[in-house]
Amino acid sequence: MDVIFGLIPGMILLGLAGVLIFFWAVRNGQYEDMEGPAHRILNDDDMDKMGGPERKP
To answer: What is the pTM for the complete model shown?
Structure first.
């Protein structure tokens, strides 16, 4: 029973740290462009890196 008096403040501190890290990430723009990387991987030009034919704009 004495262990629970140490675990509860620890859980509260870890939860508070998680919330603060989440708000820091939101404020720094980590969640602004959720679609960009998903579309960018579809346009990956592996042939250019492997020495294949290059596309001309």
So the answer is: 0.56
